[in-house]
Structure formats: structure tokens, C-alpha cells
Amino acid sequence: MPDTIPAPALPVGHYGYDQVDRAFLADRVEQFRDQVARRIAGTLSEDEFKPLRLMNGLYLQLHAYMLRIAVPYGVLDSRQLRELAHIARTYDRDYGHFTTRQNLQFNWIKLEDTPDILARLADVDMHAIQTSGNCIRNVTCDQFAGAAQDELVDPRVHAEILRQWSTLHPEFTFLPRKFKIAISGSPNDRVAARFHDIGLVAKPAPDGGTQFDVFVGGGMGRTPIVGVHLRDDLPEEDLLAYLEAMVRVYNEYGRRDNIYKARIKILVQALGTEGYRQKVDAEFAAMNRARYRLPPETVAAIRARFGTPDLHAPDDAAAQLDRARRADPAFDRWVRTNTNPHRAPGYISAVISLKPAGGIPGDATSAQMDLIADLADRYAFGEIRVTHMQNLVLGHVRQDELYAVWQALRGADLAAANIGLIGDIIACPGLDYCSLANARSIPIAQKLSARFASPELQETIGPIEIKISGCINACGHHHAGHIGILGVDKKGEEYFQLTLGGSPGSDASVGQILGPALPEDATVDAIARLVDAYLVHRTGGERFLDTYRRLGAALFKDAVYATA
Amino acid sequence: MPLLENGRLVPDIWTILDEEAPFPATGPVIVPLSRLEEGLARAPGEKLGVAIPQDAEIDTLRTVLPRLSLVAVTFPIFRDGRAFSQARALREHLHFTGEIRATGKPLPDQYEFLLRCGVSTVDLPPGSDPEVWARAHTRFRTAYQPSVLGERAEGVTLRRVL
């Protein structure tokens, strides 16, 4: 067995707090303790307390309080994951749920426990700040950042800058509606940049620095819209100034009379891309640019607080991986489906599927969290990433050690070979937890993943994204699913409406409704027929999405409704 | 209503006029935006303030601002954060140096945000506990972004020392 990698002084992959950051978090915890005490004493009404608890990630759901903990740009260290496991065991029902915003939710929390939980989180430099409320939410990022072969710029330093800048922002904490930013540094969009309020893609600037593509006004919900491209040349030093201008225009002109029309996408549509751009440019021209300038020294100072992995693989690492793959077909399949090429020779990124056949997408038990934390310490510099697909990633694994990682995962029901395949389903919490939902998303996801459990079958079907939302608010991203499933209520019965052709990536598109909604017990069979129709009609290595785009909806409509 | 400045209660010298109330013979008055012309017609020596609604365009005050000693912004509900941007625009775009007063229903938990956007006084909503507001004023020692107060940056970081 390999030696354990010694923990570096700074956490690999995310910003390392210093005493000032820790003092800030401690102040924040005390502030919330005070607010909870005022609520319990009755001097704060529920109406007044609600936005304050939401700003600390505390929701009141169908059965209990839910606490949503921020995982900035989706990167955790092993110490943090162990603390989450501890909280799951001590204050919840022994599991946590990883979300599409790369966060973690606990679903069974007591109000009076939350100040203590937040204090425990603060001990490991974590918090729940702005995981809810009409403010700038947790900034999401490419799960392979800093590791992917196709990446041009590691976006995590800028994600951290945005995290800091947006934290208790004095002007932008009471926006018309929530505000979500995603950032990538790869031309292959893995963050759904075009489905965010603001999507940023970092790339090298002609002068050798960094600049950004800026997308604005994308989103899902009741009005799914692919974001518009605002500019392709935002210099790094203007990043914060320009975002200030973008968000300020939204704060001033975004609608506040109807929460379903309050997101920035509605404003951008109302003003038109040019109209919005003009207002932003006017604001940008008028503002104190020196004050909001992001100087390279600041970027460097924040970058210096990131630990970096010391990547040294043995010369025969790739050869050892090849040998292990040839010797074990199940491992070979998992490597094909669950890994991503690494920029460094001898390394690879491994995706830990939180989508076992018949399981609840994104759930992990405390024992699984502890095991993954141990694996991260031993094989991946103590770093764990959360993906917006609700899986986990070990970013930097030596190829000669991957087989050992897989064996350990397999022993904990964490080695489903289904990343990007039909079992890799996104589902919102649905009516099992959420007071907004019309239908239960989780059982559909469980039945689908059980139906398509066979790894051979999944690999035969190939890349396909199924996304399930329990209501029109679209937390399960159904609009961006190759196959989207939306729960609707028909006279008290749960029905499911199918949409086809959505995509979250560089070829972003909104799925189109296929036809009338189906009863719960017919939905899984209908999707099986739809998949069969695809297998009959696809040509070459065509993905489901490509076949749909080539042939249109008619044949899938026939397949779904012919015998329904 | 009690007026808060720098976390302490201070006397309020201003008379607030509604849409109809007659102007007092002398003394500082705050007029609604709709009566700004009437206010400007008073003797130049009299201090004048204007109360603007949350959807007012700040730029429309540009030409009259030199005559104004006070601008009152409002939070009809605490969730309506437009007045934060108005206060900031007054300070940052129009370089207004007079008093910016927050009215309506802000929460004590928003006090630091108000100050950092350029608000100088808060007309405390009925039932407010000034102690809670005072605590909110001293709660944090650090912020993570520049503000109109121009707080000192901590080295080259984004952090500001409050």
C-alpha cells in the first residue's frame, strides 16, 4: 500500500482561512445565535426572522428545518467532510444530501441546534452564509477545475474572489430574487454557464493575463431561458467592477411585484440584450473604477492561500493502470465511465457516483463521508469536489493507485459505473421533503436507476441526462435534461410531464414538452420505450440528444403514447 | 420617531412634510419628491431635504443636489433593497456629502449594510430596540468588499477593516 500523503499546510483546492476570516465567521455565528434567541423570545416575528434564517441557509420544509451548508465552488477538504459526517450523525438522521449547487443539505435539523451546528462548521472554516435568500448564492464551478486536460484557466481563485466579494455584500443582499453565478475555465462547459443569472468563462487574455466571457440572464424555473452573451473580453481587473454594475442594474430595475418574474432573466428579456448592456455600461462608466478595481496583487494574495498538489506519479503509473484494467473488466468499465483526463501525466480524476441503482441521488451516509474523507487523505491530497450532478470527485489520483481507490469505493456502494449515463439522474428533493413540490421526484429516480441498473445496458445506451423536478420551479433542472421529467398535480394525483432535447452545456437548449403528462405508474415504462426507440434509430456513436435533434419528437412521441 | 446616528440616538431637527402639510415659517424641512419645487422656492438659507420613493432615479436629483442637505430613502419592506443602490449612487455617482436618512422598515440586521452604502441616519421603525441596533453596529470587524465609506484595505486582500 502507498504511504499516506502528509497534509499540506494549506488545503489543496480551496482558499485557506486565516485568523481574520475565522474571526469573521465567529462573529457571524454569534449574530445568528442572537437572532435565534430573539426569535425564541418572540421579539423577532417569524416574518422578520425568515430572511435572517434563510441568509444562514435554514429553510422550513414540509416536515422539519433543512440546513443548507455552502461548499464554495464545490471544494471540500477531508477535515470538512468528516465534520459534515459528524453533524449528520449527531444532529440529523445519519446522512446528508449533496445538491445541484454543489452544497450539502441536512433535512432533519432542529432550530435550537443550528447555532451550535454553525459553530462546529466555523471550526472547520465552513458556513451556511447566503445559501438561500434573495442574495448572491454559492458560486459554482467546474468539478474538474485545476485538474482537467481541457482547461485553459483554473477558475477557483476567481470563484473564491467572488465568494468573498459577495459575502454580506452591503448593496446586494436584498435583491429582487436569488442570484446564481457559475464560473468555468474550460471551453467545454461543465457548469451550465448559460443557465445562470451570470455565467463566467475564464480564458487567457492576449496580454498573458486572464479575461472572461460573460453570459447573463439564463435560468430555469417557470421561464426557462438560455442566457445571452454579454461580452467576451472582460479583463480580470474589472471583474468585480463590472459585476457590481451588472447586479446594480438588476437591483434597481428588476421586478419586485411578482416573484416569478423577478429573476434577472426577465429583466434582460424586457430590456433586450442591447438595452441591458447599455445600462450596465453606463453604470460601469459612472462608477469609481479605482475603488472596485481587482489588482493582480490581490488575485495573487488570494491564490497564495490555496494549497496546490505536488504531482509526482511514477513513470509506469499509466502502465499499471492499464494492467489493472485488463485484469478486471468491472474496474475497466468504471474507469471508462467515471474518470476524466488529468493535465498531469500519471494522474486522473475519479468521479464517485452518489447514484447507486435504486438509491436517492446525491445522498451520502456519514460512514460513506468518512470513508471518502479517508480516501481523499490517502490518495487525493485531502481534496474532495462536489459536482452539480450531485456526485463527488477525487481530482488528483495517481493512475497506479486508482484500482485501490475503486476497490475501497466498491466496498461502500460508491462505485456505480454510471457517470453521464442513464443512472446518473439529477432529482430535486420533491414532495418527500419540499413544501413547494407537486410530486415525488425521488421515487421516479429510484425506479429508473433500478430499471437501468445493469452497467452493460447503461454503457450501451451511452451518454444521456435525465433530470427530474417535482414542480415548476425546476430545482431538478428538467428543462436542461436530454430527458426532463416534471412532476405535476392532476386533481390530487401525481403526474409526470416529459420534455426532450434540453442540454446544459456549450450547446445549451431548453427541452420541449413531448405530450400529455403520464401517471406515476406509467412514467418509467414510457421512458424505457423512449430509450428503446432511440436505440433503434440512432446511427453511429450518436448520443440520445443528437438523435432527437436529427429526427425530432415524432418517433419518441409515438413510442411514449402508442401504448400508454 | 427616534433617530439613530453612529449607533446612538440623536435629536431630530427636521420637520417632515407630507403631500399637504403647510411649510413652517422657518427651520429645516423634508419634502416629498412631488413638492421639491415648493421646497426649492423657500429662502436659500433654509435647510431642505427630500424624501424619495424606492423607485426614483437618483440621477434626476443631480442638478438640485447642491441645494439639498438631506435625502431620505425608504424601505417600504425590509426585503426591498433598492434604497441601498440609491444611497450608493448618491455618494458615489453624485458625490453627495449631506445626510442620507433611511426610513420605512429596515431591520437592525441591515444596519451595517446601510452605513456601508452611504446612509448616515436611520429613522427607527416603531417598536425598535436601539440596543439591538447598537449591537448590530459593532458586530463585525471585517468586510470583504470595498464600500463608499472607503474603509482601509487589509494589505492587498479584498478585506476591509471596519
Automatic annotation (TrEMBL), chain A:
Residues 65-123, 360-410 form the Nitrite/Sulfite reductase ferredoxin-like domain. Keywords: 4Fe-4S, Heme, Iron, Iron-sulfur, Metal-binding, Oxidoreductase. InterPro entries: NIR_SIR_4Fe-4S (IPR051329), NiRdtase/SiRdtase_haem-b_fer (IPR005117), Nit/Sulf_reduc_fer-like_dom_sf (IPR036136), NO2/SO3_Rdtase_4Fe4S_dom (IPR006067), NO2/SO3_Rdtase_4Fe4S_sf (IPR045854). The keyword Oxidoreductase applies. One of its GO terms (molecular function) is heme binding. Residues 132-284, 464-560 form the Nitrite/sulphite reductase 4Fe-4S domain. Gene3D superfamilies: 3.90.480.20, Sulfite Reductase Hemoprotein, domain 1 (3.30.413.10). It comes from the Bacteria. It holds the Pfam family NIR_SIR. This is Nitrite/sulfite reductase. It comes from Gluconacetobacter asukensis.
From TrEMBL, chain B:
It holds the Pfam family DUF934. InterPro entries: UCP030820. It comes from the Bacteria. This is DUF934 domain-containing protein. It comes from Gluconacetobacter asukensis. The lineage of its organism: Bacteria, Pseudomonadati, Pseudomonadota, Alphaproteobacteria, Acetobacterales.
